[in-house]
Design goal:
2 domains; single chain; 7-stranded mixed β-sheet; alpha/beta; Rossmann fold; GMP Synthetase, Chain A, domain 3; 9 helices; globular
Length: 301
Amino acid sequence: MKQKFLSGFVSLIGRPNVGKSTLMNTLIGLKIAITSEKPQTTRNRIQTVFTDERGQIVFLDTPGIHKAKNKLDSYMVNVAEHTLKEVDVVLWLVEPTRYVGSNEEHIVEKLKKCKTPVVLVINKIDTLEKQDLIRLVTLYKDLLPFADIVPVSALNGENTEELLRVIFSHLQEGPQYFDEDTVTDQPMRQIAAELIREKALRNLQDEVPHGIAVTIERMEERGTSNFFDIDAEIICEKDSHKGIIIGKGGAMLKKIGSQAREEIEGLMDARVNLKLWVKVRREWRDNELYLKNYGYRNEDV
């Protein structure tokens, strides 16, 4: 008897900086979503694909759900909450805490209205003793009627095979949405822009990263030589931030560009000539026109 091909859409939600992007990258076996230790790293919904003999899971990594402070924040929260209505399974990712905080309580209120099966995923179990894990399960299990509770370590992949098994157990027989070789529907321009932003997030001071965006102005192949020229702009909100991004003698901008180029070359399997410029756009995070120009469009949600 032929095995059923299961398929469906799965959203990863949670407060900022709990490891959603790291978990998604681990599950599909390739880095597509950028990661950093700073909150609000993910700004757009990122779609990736896992396919094996059981079927196909289309993951939607979403921005962290948090209290909005500007129009960009509102856009990100809207993206995250909107996906709850369009998926077959919701993975709510939490990390070890001693109490359920206000962000988690806000997410619980959203999930109470959700008719989709919710799987609680407790991340960072590599940092926990067994009794602490039991305490965490007890802390969360009565908040919602979870379809399942799965502890994992997104960083080292511990128990992620069990998470995949649980996800497939909640999916129905369905079509193959993407070719089996597809791991994301993100255009390379967008991935390249995000990788540059990731390197900026990791290298810059705390007050700068939230106020930057990255746009790809040009991406062209030199004939058929498998060599690409990429021109990108890093947008910031203050002249002082521009100085920090460029660094003394251009050292910081060179460091960001070098790290980004290396990773872009690995993903594209091609050589890349990456040129970066820095521009100031004051309070762009509260400007509808700038938000749309930089790819944050509510009508696309």
